[in-house]
Amino acid sequence: MKAQLFSGVGVALITPFRRSQETVDFTKLEALIEDIIASGADYIVALGTTSEAATMTESERAAVQEFIVETVDGKLPIMLGLGGNNTLSLTDTIARLNFDGISGLLSVTPYYNKPNQRGLAAHYRSVSEASPVPVVMYNVPGRTGVNMTAETTLMLANECPNIIGIKEASGNMQQIMELLRNRPAGFRVISGDDSLTYPMLALGADGVISVLANALPREMSQMVHFAMKSDLKHALPLHNHMLPLMNAIFDEGNPTGIKALLETQGKINNVLRLPLVKASKQLSNKLTQLYNEFAN
Question: Is 291 annotated as catalytic?
Answer without folding.
Answer: no
